[in-house]
Every structure is written in structure tokens, then in C-alpha cells.
Amino acid sequence: MSPYAIGTPLKRFTGPDAWDAIVVGSGIGGLTAALLLGAKRGLRVLVLERHYTAGGFTHTFRRPGYEWDVGVHYVGQTGSSSGMGKMFAEVFGTGVTWASMGEVYDTVVLGGRRFEYVAGRERWRARMIEYFPGERAAIDGYLGAVRATVAASQLYWAEKVVPGAIAASAGWAMRARFMRYASRTTREVLTSFTRNPDLMAVLSAQWGDYGLPPSRSSFGMHAILAHHYLGGGFYPVGGARTMAAAVVPRIAAQGGAVVIDADVERVTLERGRVSGVRTRSGREFRAPIVISDAGLATTLRLLPADADGRAALDDTLGRLTTSSAHLCLYVGLRHSDAELSLGRSNLWVYPDADLDAALARFEANPEADLPLAYISFPSAKDPSFAARFPGRSTIEVITLGRYAWFERWAAAPWRRRGADYDALKARLRDRLLDVLHREVPQVRGKVDVAELSTPLSTRQFTNYARGEIYGLAHDPTRFAERRLRPRTPVRGLWLTGQDVCTCGIGGALAGGYLTASAIVGRPLLPR
């Protein structure tokens, strides 16, 4: 077992076969739903995870002398005064401490020109006006639209959990205000305020956090994301794994369990309703409630073809698309952050201000310029890293990558995919290193480790069929879909996590709240 594993391996698990509820997948959405159902309703919840550690995209991995997160690069709204901050506090308790990234949390690079995102709404506004003094009205209009969208989203999320009769009669009204924004693309909303291409690029530069460029993404998603970070960025002290480590023991203390190396093969049904799950090892667990944190597409692969209600879910998935896949270069250096003067601000690097055109060129021809390089400095963000790994530092460089480029190696075993696959990875690694050397020149000649993950890596560890990182694409169609909610047409089967709410730690965690609230039949939001 990995020394970094969180949870009990299935082969060592001696717990019972019968439970009040079962959660498939231990991402933050699944862990949150399990924790809340135990704490608020007294249910004994079993969480089953196919990976060697719990936590989903919050897990970390090590190489000799180094540690990297795989999905947590920063988090917003950690303060106790915000609704999101209260949810973080309730779920993570005292197990997670947040370190501020400082005044500048994101830096946008457009063809070499730099624009900083500074913490605090009014300070952010003032900085943008400094960059674009003739666009004050556009900047204020944009901020107003962000605020209005987020305010309107509250009823939209509430509609997902109200009883069916209420949703049928009042659902449209509860969703209408948010959908005025969410039904439009980010680019459509931005062009209603300005035609300045540089300003539009700077305002939408965080699109990598949800995986769709301005012409394809829903402004509803963009507004939620932008609002989430206006107060600044934060990072968990001790790394992302502290999140699952804070929750798993509490689930166990409530009579539940989190079991790893437990690959669920099938959701079982009896007399038309869920009866439990069967693992690939052959062990079966029974429960009248099964909650899937594996995403809608993966959940359908676990359901019998003739399950009552499945046709409606198939129809829903057929109207939606999956999110983008990605490449991540994990860099290790035998120098400390202080020695290299590495800052904490993320870098969003673009070749020019036409973000959509750059991506279109790359999707058509992978030899074109990289459309985006996101550079993160996790060791600099974590105050505990220097003590845990003295004299070392880490960087991550991320860009988009299509699953189709790697699909011919999908059936080959992990780490044994052959020379051609390794050669492709080496070329992509070198391209990302070139961007890193250009934007952070002080690391040139000092890289000790440079390990690239591809969409096949994501597929291996998350079970997303095409290596998608954000589940279902966050476009206007997704937010218009009424069936994308916790309760499914299959009796006893529920969904949670990012496909119920949005991507990101905050979105997945909120998805856990939505699902637990829908099951219990009342709002479970912290006061």
C-alpha cells in the first residue's frame, strides 16, 4: 500500500456488507455527502474508492525528495464570513489550515505583457482601471454582472434539491434569473461591455479553471469562478491531501468507512430500485441509497442496461459534452523557493489576446503554439514545504491536451506504453519546459525532475473515459439541463460532486451539500 494512502484497502476491510448508504468515489463531493449524512441524519455511510488513496483530485503524489498536488492549485473564499468559507469550516474542521497567496494571486501574460489580479474586489477594480483607464464603465459593468449572476445562482442551486412538485410548479422561476446569464457565453457577455480585445482577454483569462474558452463557456460558470477568487487565493498548508485526511476519520467516527482499492463494477438493483454495489473483486455491499461521485458518464457505465430510469439519464448525457483533457508537467528543483525567488502567483500565459483562436489552432494542429500554459508554484504557496523538503521546490505547468492524440495507447498498461508514447511525452515535456524557461528564466539549468502526465494518466486514476478533468463541459447547455440534479430517475440512485454543481473544490463540495440536502429533505447549509 502507498505510504500516502488515505483509507482502508478493500482486501483488509472487515466491516459489514450492509450499510445505510454507499458513495461511489471519494472526491470532495462524495466525502462531503458522506460526512453530512452521518452528522445530520445518523446514517452509516460506506465510501468506495478505486484508487490507492481517497480524495479524488485532492490527492498528492511523491517522487524522491518531492511532492506535488494533482488538482488543487488554489482555493478562494476560505474566510468564515462567506457561505463557502462556512462550508469549508464545517467539512474540514480544524484539519485544514489555509495560507494566503498574498496580494497577487493570478498574473495574466498576453504575448509577454503582464496583468496582475490583486486580492480584494475594490483593489482588483482599481488595478484593472490602471491597466485600462478608458474602460472604467466596462470594468464596472462586468463586476456588476458577476455579482448579479452569483446572487441569482442561489435559487438556481436550491431548485435542484426541492421536492418534485415544487420544482414542477416553481422551478422555472427559481432558475430564470441565473439563466439570463448562464445561457450566454462569456464572450457574449463581455462584448456587451467592451470591444477591447486585451481587456476581454484579461477578464476571461482564468478560463483554464473550468476548461472552456470565452466563446464556448457559460458566463454563469465564469462569474462564479471569478467571484470565488476576488477575495484572493489560498492554499492548504501541508498540501492538498490534508483535505481528505481531515474528513475520512470523521466519517469513520460516525460509523461509516472509507475503503480504497475498491473498484465498483456494477450498481445492483432489485425490483426496480438500487440495492447496493458489486466490486470488481466480487465483494458486494448492500444499501438502499447509492450516491455516485464518479460523474454522470461513469455512473451510466455502472448501471445495468435495462435499469428503470436509465433511458432518461442516457438521453441527458446525449445532450451534453464532456470537458477538456489536459497535460501537466510536474517539475522538481534542487533549490528552495527562496533561492530561486519563486513567487506564489499563478501565471496564465497566452500567445496573444485572441484566446479562442489560439485554442482552435492547437486543437487542429498540436504542433501549433500552445494556446495556454498555466504555471503554478505549489511549494512556494505551502509554508510547510520547506521544512518537509528542505532545499527543494516544485512547479507545475499545465496546458490542454486532446485525448485523441493518445487514444491508441489507451489499452497499454500504465508506465509500459512503449517508445512512441514516451517520445511524444518527451516532445510535449520539452515544449512546456520552454515556456517555463521563458517565463521563469531563473530555473533554467536547475530542473531536477520533469514528469509529464497525459489524459491517459487522468483516465487511469479517475476513470473518466476520455481523460476529462472537469466532468461535463461548463457550457450554456449544461446549465440549462434540468435533469442534472442529485435525484436521478433510477430509484435510490443519487449523483453528487462537480456534475451536480460545478467543477473545482468549492463546486464539488457544494455538490455534496446539495445531494445530502436532497436526500434528507431539508437544507443542510451551515449557519
Shape: globular
How does the major sheet shape up?
7 strands, mixed
- Looking at the structure, the CATH topology of the domain at 8-57 and 238-319 and 481-520 is FAD/NAD(P)-binding domain
The Cα radius of gyration reads: 22 Å
On the 0 to 100 scale, the average pLDDT is: 96
Tally of alpha and pi helices: 19
The first-level CATH class of the domain at 8-57 and 238-319 and 481-520 is given as: Alpha Beta
The counted number of beta strands is 20
What is the strand and helix layout of this fold?
Elements: E1 8-9, E2 21-24, H1 28-41, E3 45-48, E4 60-63, E5 66-69, H2 83-92, E6 98-100, E7 104-110, E8 113-118, H3 121-131, H4 136-159, H5 164-182, H6 186-191, H7 197-203, H8 219-229, E9 234-236, H9 241-253, E10 257-260, E11 264-270, E12 273-279, E13 284-286, E14 290-292, H10 296-302, H11 310-318, E15 326-333, H12 337-340, E16 346-350, H13 355-364, E17 373-376, H14 378-381, H15 385-388, E18 393-400, H16 419-439, E19 447-453, H17 455-462, H18 476-480, E20 493-495, H19 504-520
Parallel strand pairs: 1-10, 2-3, 2-14, 3-10, 7-16, 14-20
Antiparallel strand pairs: 4-5, 6-9, 7-8, 11-12, 12-13, 15-18, 15-19, 16-17, 17-18
Helix pairs in contact: 1-9, 1-19, 4-5, 4-8
Overview of this protein structure:
With 527 residues, this protein is an alpha/beta fold. It is built from 19 helices and 20 strands. Among the domains are: 8-57 and 238-319 and 481-520, FAD/NAD(P)-binding domain (3-Layer(bba) Sandwich); 120-229, no CATH class. The protein has helices at 28-41, 83-92, 121-131, 136-159, 164-182, 186-191, 197-203, 219-229, 241-253, 296-302, 310-318, 337-340, 355-364, 378-381, 385-388, 419-439, 455-462, 476-480, 504-520, and strands at residues 8-9, 21-24, 45-48, 60-63, 66-69, 98-100, 104-110, 113-118, 234-236, 257-260, 264-270, 273-279, 284-286, 290-292, 326-333, 346-350, 373-376, 393-400, 447-453, 493-495. The longest helix is centred in the N-terminal third of the chain and has 24 residues, at 136-159. It has a seven-stranded mixed sheet, with helices on both faces.
